[in-house]
Amino acid sequence: MVQPLIFRKGLDLKDAVKGDLARDYHSDVVEQIRAADYRYDNGRLTIHLAREFGFCYGVDRAVDYAYQARMRFADQRVYLTGEIIHNPHVNEKLRTAGIRFLSDPGEPSPELGAGDVVIIPAFGVTVHELARLQGLGCTLVDTTCGSVLNVWKNVTRYAREGFTAVIHGKVKHEETQATASQALKTPGGRYLVVLDKVEAEEVCAYIRGTGDRDAFMSRFGKAVSVGFDPDRDLGHIGLANQTTMLMSESLEIAAMLRQAMEDRYGVEALAERYRAFDTICSATQERQDAVIALLDSEAIDLMLVVGGYNSSNTCNLARICADRVPTYHIADVDRIVSADRIRHRPVPPSDQPLAKLPEIETPDWLPRHGAVRVGLTAGASTPNNIIGIVVERLAVHAAETAPAAPPR
Ligand code: SF4
């Protein structure tokens, strides 16, 4: 059988697609704000942009490789396994360029085979899906981010050493599914996904011997490996994260589980029963740190956080902000309807469980009079051109609501 090709380091067309990427995602406005110490002044409006925001290195690379793949395989069918990132504009650009999505109804039509090209997004795919695509003989363009690979390395090692991988993440998120599948490469490998501190507390109770087995399995039945037995599989645990979770929460969950293991088995047994590695990626951490620094250093009236509602890292940026100031998480620039109306997803504070609340509309969100100071950040899947349009729209609406100039 002819081995399929796998491209993992680009397709030697970086310079050739540079112009297209700049045309589709660059923003002069954002570059001007960067050059002005991340500050934008226009009349009564001041915008403070977080010093790290928007596209991360993993997304930059994935989108770059997708453009290169389209160019290199111009005469072949080119697919993505699903959304390349959680941003409709970027996905739409790729569709317009002729890249198809295996996650779309009716795809692939006809079946995939040798001659087809499949791009694997930055969050990776499960072990099973990778083997399937390879088995079909597809050419693969693998953009799995190095930071995700680092998590996989830890989970694989946990499984080899007989530890259950406890993954702080969202069980339906593509990255967490791919990460969890790494445990299954080893016979007997196991995983458990916990969403937040509330779920972690239930796992801690079980470890301490105060949990109920049926209740545990009813809560976590869809978040564990097949055949998971909490009585057997919580005896040796290793912690990992989806790379885009809230750093502070991941650390708290790790500490909670460590304490539960200590309570159950004693401190001397920890070294042989508990492992933890920080697997939040540096880009996520830098964006979270930057927004905290912004809130610490500037008097902000409100925060705007731009990015998909299904974008984990964006939701966590919004949670950090909502603890401190009125925060509007908007999926896109069109959610800023007018100076009086904004559509946004409410954000629970970081000490409350994650919740997928429906989008709401809030009136009178932009102060009508006097100076207004807006903090701005965006998740790792939001391109700069969208951030630039948000800035321009804010400037227009702030001018609309400004009081008339006093008569001379
Ligand atoms: S958020 Fe982090 S892990 Fe995910 S693609 Fe970006 S850099 Fe990579």
Span between termini: 85 Å
Number of strands: 16
Helix/strand structural class: alpha/beta
CATH architecture of the largest domain: 3-Layer(aba) Sandwich
Largest sheet entry: 5 strands, parallel
- Helical proportion, percent range: 40-55%
Helices, by number, come to 15
Report what the structure shows:
The chain is α/β, with parallel strands linked by helices. Helix 6 (146-160) runs parallel beside helix 7 (174-183), helix 8 (197-208) packs parallel to helix 11 and helix 13 (282-297) packs parallel to helix 14. Strand 12 (302-306), helix 14 (312-322) and strand 13 (327-330) form a beta-alpha-beta unit. The protein is globular and about 65 Å long. The model has no long low-confidence stretch (mean pLDDT 94). Helix content is 42%, strand content 16%. The relative contact order is 0.14. It has three domains: 25-56 and 283-400, Cobalt-precorrin-4 Transmethylase, domain 1, CATH 3.40.1010.20; 57-145, 3-Layer(aba) Sandwich (Rossmann fold); 147-280, Cobalt-precorrin-4 Transmethylase, domain 1, CATH 3.40.1010. The strands form four sheets. Strands 1-7-6-4-5 form a five-stranded parallel β-sheet, covered by helices on one side. A five-stranded mixed β-sheet has the order 2-3-16-12-13, with helices on both faces. It binds iron/sulfur cluster (SF4). Iron/sulfur cluster (SF4) binds at residues 56-59, 122, 145, 147-148, 243-244, 281, 283-284, 313, 380.
